[in-house]
Amino acid sequence: MPEAFCLKACIDCLYSDYSPYGQALGSMLCFRNIKDEYLRVASKNEFWALHGRHERPVQETCLCGQFARRVPGTGYRG
Q: What total of structural domains would you count in the chain?
């Protein structure tokens, strides 16, 4: 997809991530409740400390009012 475009859905959101255990049926974890902490995570080891603190599981195609486009190089999954 050209850089000027993005999917406006959880799969492309700055605050979502897959569980380090793997994903089932497109489930992701939403970290919008602890945005600043999540964005400071830079490794899988650091991610484990936040793993159980996500707000809710979401589908990859979900969209909420707090969507922020994922910027390459930002956060753990970036």
A: 1
